[in-house]
Queue: 2 jobs
Job 1
Amino acid sequence: MRRLKIVVVVADGLGDRPVPELGMRTPLELVDFSPVADLLSRSAVGLWDPIRPGVRPGSDTAHLALFGVDPINNYPGRGPFEAIGAGASLRPGDVAFRGNLATVSDEMVVIDRRAGRVIPEAKQLVEYLNQNIGEIEGVRVEVYHATEHRVAVVFRGPGLSDAVSDTDPHSEGVRVLESRPLADDEAARRTARVVNAFTKRVAELLRDCPLNARREERGAPPVNAILLRGAGKMVRYPRFSERGELDVARAVAISATALVKGVCALLGFEVVTPEGATGGIDSDLMSKARAAVEFYRRGYDLIYVHVKGADAASHDGNPYAKVDMIERTLRVLSYIADNVDLEDVVISFLGDHTTPVTVRDHTSDPVPVAVYAPGILTDGFSRLTEKEARRGSLGRLRSVELFGTLMDYAGRIEKFGA
Amino acid sequence: MRRLKIVVVVADGLGDRPVPELGMRTPLELVDFSPVADLLSRSAVGLWDPIRPGVRPGSDTAHLALFGVDPINNYPGRGPFEAIGAGASLRPGDVAFRGNLATVSDEMVVIDRRAGRVIPEAKQLVEYLNQNIGEIEGVRVEVYHATEHRVAVVFRGPGLSDAVSDTDPHSEGVRVLESRPLADDEAARRTARVVNAFTKRVAELLRDCPLNARREERGAPPVNAILLRGAGKMVRYPRFSERGELDVARAVAISATALVKGVCALLGFEVVTPEGATGGIDSDLMSKARAAVEFYRRGYDLIYVHVKGADAASHDGNPYAKVDMIERTLRVLSYIADNVDLEDVVISFLGDHTTPVTVRDHTSDPVPVAVYAPGILTDGFSRLTEKEARRGSLGRLRSVELFGTLMDYAGRIEKFGA
């Protein structure tokens, strides 16, 4: 079977619902598809449900499925992926929590679960903790700042378990909880002990932290506790090269978004952020396009280009910025299509999940997807709005089904059976 | 995320196949959709496979899936649900069997597995047994009459198991079987002992039952045994309020059908049967419509209206009665749509399974479904026959996928992932 290269271009948050501001059209319906009209008309199109219909995907779970790992049975919970999104490199066995910077009384009664939510000195506070916290029972602890009051906390050491309860009481006016082992084994008991020592250590360190003195001067509530929830133990995902059914030796992910980069690294991608690519709407997208073509020329099997901007515009509720970001992403797609040998490549353009600008968050609406491959049965659409996607011949693909389809068109997947 | 109310209206057995009597049209193709044409034209439509394509759903398994519980991995077998359909309130741990009223010889050889099938005094026989049977080894036994010769038998007590074999030999001319433990534990041994004692006790009680004397007078075979099959141990389903990923506090199910009411109660619905609602084709459906609007106004999150009549007409093989019942169900839907704020509600209309009038039983044909939500991408159909459903943009949803979709449009379901 002839082996083709695979290029996947994601416009993060691509799909949408009708927008009142746009006369009940979707952003995609305002998009100028002319740069990719020829490529699309030579493609099959359809819908993709990253997890399954009716499940709202995270960026992490969607990317696992996009690259062939069923997230329903292979997801350690949000703790580890929050940490990855905040820049952590996790190893299998690490236990990570989501956490809140919070304000508590001297008796550890929660006064504000979010310490005022706006915490300009959050990064410095976290750095202060990381410099001073040290090890606990031979376990290394790292705190990562995400956004506002949100942090992730990673525990790394032998014999840890994620079968421990939250310290976050999930309400105010009550004491911070002791973490309890949820399994009758030494790993759970040890982890709960370490977590409780962490809670105490954090309170001691922050009590004397000069950053809090300055907060109090301007009337802001002190940050003097970290509340933990959602323990998850990092799993190991098989790298592409370890997946016997696949023939993918070299894969590269071009992205500027920490969570996406983290997930891709776990799957065995080399991860690249070209200069000028920021993950925001000011990103130099053409640097990603040029990088993709460069890796194609260097003989990479799978080249993934992730463009965040359309999702950022959606979270901001800005349909015009979304139209603009999609059009800029299509120029990336067009540049790549113009600079590869179309007889030698499978190209897919899609979203990783739908983020309607009217909702400003991920929804379970299936995402439009186009698949170009030499000799594929085409639908002949020269646009890819939600409507063409719903009429497309790919139908409604779920989870890992899309990845398998791409791998098959590229001649890179084993037969199941004789 | 804005939270909307959810209203689900089921016409039981809705879908169909072409009917020779109707010139190879389906009942839905004869239905006047005008009362709901506007609502449908603002909806997305498609097909739903309650379990998965190729599996014939029961009303119980279909309703579990409709409300987000995967029945394939969470179904204790038909025994418990037959009992629920016959009016039993089951508790987790109860073991229930399907049973037949049967005729046996003095040596317990099966003469008629159905005791003539038509048993006018079945209800009295069952009452007689329940009054006299007493406890067996501390286990309470209850017999419920379903239809004709069919009963369900519930064993309630500590330490029971469903790992026991049938007493029904599934053929005639052979002896009633001893139930055997199918697991090597005390619960299975104890349950088999109790079941065998039950068989004996029933034979003793029915031997002297005056009802049998009267049956024999008119030449009908005596009912002198109960044959048991399909042991199932009742499980506990999480209530809506216990499902952390959902935000559904108050849910009400409006139905007059025992099995549907039982399943809904297990899932945490308040269950209501308005006066005049019978579950038959003579049911006062508008009393259900008024009740639905009343619960909407009282702030319920999820309102379920179940209308049995179309299924009853299908089991009778009467396509005209089915058309009529569907039209009456659409008036319920129309009344609800006219009396709620359409900016505040997700409305779904569908069947719980297909019951073709030519088959007179449930089939695996997918059911038509319509989903209205503010801002949903619409298909613009003003009718919902099998044909529009097959062309609809929802595609073909399976099992719990529909529930997740409704919950997502209502802004009531957590994201899976970060």
Job 2
Amino acid sequence: MKRSNLNIGIIGIGNIGLQVLKQLTLNSQLNKLFSVESVLVRDKQKYTKIISEDNEFKNEIDNVLEKITDNEDDFFSNNNIDILIELIGGIDPAYRYVKRALESKKHVVTANKDLIATHIEELLQLSKDNSVKLRFEGSVGAGIPIIEVLSDMLKQNQIKKITGIINGTSNYILSSMFENSSDFEDVLKEAQDLGFAESDPTNDVEGFDAKFKINILGSIAFGTRIPLETVYVKGISGVSNKDMNYAKEFGYNIKLLAITEKSSEGIYSNISPALVSLSQPISKVGGNYNAVEILGDLVGNLWIQGEGAGKNSTSSAVLGDLMGIYYRSSDDVNLSGNKENYLSKEEVMIRNYIRLSVEDKYGVLSEISGIFSKNEISIASVIQKDIDNDQDVVDLVIMTHDSKGVNFDIAIDSVSKISSVKEKPVVIRIND
Amino acid sequence: MKRSNLNIGIIGIGNIGLQVLKQLTLNSQLNKLFSVESVLVRDKQKYTKIISEDNEFKNEIDNVLEKITDNEDDFFSNNNIDILIELIGGIDPAYRYVKRALESKKHVVTANKDLIATHIEELLQLSKDNSVKLRFEGSVGAGIPIIEVLSDMLKQNQIKKITGIINGTSNYILSSMFENSSDFEDVLKEAQDLGFAESDPTNDVEGFDAKFKINILGSIAFGTRIPLETVYVKGISGVSNKDMNYAKEFGYNIKLLAITEKSSEGIYSNISPALVSLSQPISKVGGNYNAVEILGDLVGNLWIQGEGAGKNSTSSAVLGDLMGIYYRSSDDVNLSGNKENYLSKEEVMIRNYIRLSVEDKYGVLSEISGIFSKNEISIASVIQKDIDNDQDVVDLVIMTHDSKGVNFDIAIDSVSKISSVKEKPVVIRIND
């Protein structure tokens, strides 16, 4: 579509919403294409104050203040609004707002990953039924145009695999652990103090945020709605300073990888900490960056990296989506109803790093390797590390070749029951 | 635009053209949108043979062969052709063909960097005058969608700087010099034997290929036609194994960087070998990859990397351009007629690495640093390296702080005239 001017309704002016409102109000380039018609907030007084005190709005203050409303019905019955920008986050009431907008034939732009990952199929269908567009670039990797690049790329490529570092908090913590040999808990506390981690960090460090994001990317890449429950999720709270140091010693880093891939057997999606060779660029993605690698049959490996959070980067995505509505003639994302097979961790081949605390006595290694061998797991390397303690206990660090998940689980269960194995084995996948 | 089916004319079926023809003929996804109407070649017999012997065309052989023609007038008078794909490369006769197509209201897709860099303004104008589109994603970085990402990004961002590794041959040579401590000439010969460098490598190793590409990116980013003659160009043929080793010792790599940036003073574009800190991701871009970093005011640093050459990657770009014509409602690239100031190397601030061969005697360093100081150049570090020879000559490796190009040139000219300085000074810029 292309019209002389599109009218915007914004819901939510927190950090990102305020920046979007500023750009739409003050940037003369954007002004030519879009006008802000109405801004729905929960507390009119609070936001009137925030905007009044913001010097950047100075010359436009009356103009902006008269757009602010806290009346939901007024907002939704405003027929002048062509596009809704939803920036409140979370599922309720965002879900209700977005549905209401689509049903009344308004385009929707959102940066809400929870909402999109949970309701992508229904909302896309609703947008098609009402001949409007639904865009959500900011829901993954903020201003990194990953959804656009991916949707465009798959028009002429078969996508085989997507590998991403898409949770900023986890990447900050792991990067800091790698650089400073710190413990998870200490770095988490520091990240919380600096505002890089939330006071309840569960969503980030346990991988749920990354799960939503890889689900969105995988659904787009494979053109089908990947059920959220098929995504295997393991967070980084179990990654210790000791394992990070061993990884480093062996030429690896540990990163929280989000992976979705499609083989002839099915689609496998997972979030888990992984050993990544220091020779791979993904091992170098610094604390405040997100990165996504797309493997396509023609394009090969395509790598895109940028600032994966922040009001500026996210507002770049939101404004880019507005441009997409203005300039593009079709929706980018199409989900077929194709039935796909979804693989579990047990069904796929994975290489693993295992750290065992074992009694330093004759026959232990032989017993352990016997169990692996019986379960068709071949060992790539074993290193024994003396640790400084009174008991006669050493670390045994084992790296396996590719082995089937189900076999590995049986083997590690047997290993953990050996009497000489003193602690629960630590297992981290190796990404090759 | 969006139509049920667009008819394609292809000129040139070398490596890339043949892959594009295959995709358009055999890929059922592409088949739905595009039909190949005619293929213009210079030597009909030769290409009839090539196609007949290509097993992949087996089931479509008659269908494909009847499209091949060597009659230019037949090809151009075919009113069924909606889009011309030009894949012959070079300026003549590609320039004539592309103009002829645009004038007869056919869209054009090309991967021809020489043509686009030389005639971008005229060809874009011609496409606008005739209400058709001109797309050239494959002209920079093959399948990496850099032109699309850049054009989309600048709709909502002010682009400040683009930094790229965009010549595969040079990057292969420098990467190999870094990894194997080899000499430029040896690696070049090896690259030629492997087919990674042409028998006349001038265009690649002297920076002319990168100059065309950065000119295209800069013109798009700053919305103005950057005159080719304002791009400073220095190739990699002067980079020695010795300098690569010193760079490595000090924590740097040497890469051929293509940079274009806009400040309040003007636009400065340059191609030159540069010391890049090993902590920067650009220092790790491997031999067969291209990478481009875009700095935008909202999005921050955005990094995109992929396979910058090859028939598959380039055909992904060409097919992506076809999709762009199909799905996008407007041209992406707009050049204003804005007058800009263009800066020369003499006017900008640059940090430099300097290697001098000097007599190992009292007072030399003082004389040299005196000259730098007089020209307002402050020295960040000086390291003297004994070299194994009979004469009493040592290497003096100097790194400066930022200094103005014109001052630096005067200083280095004076330094080279000191009697104790035994060889022409080696100068390589440092990228921070």
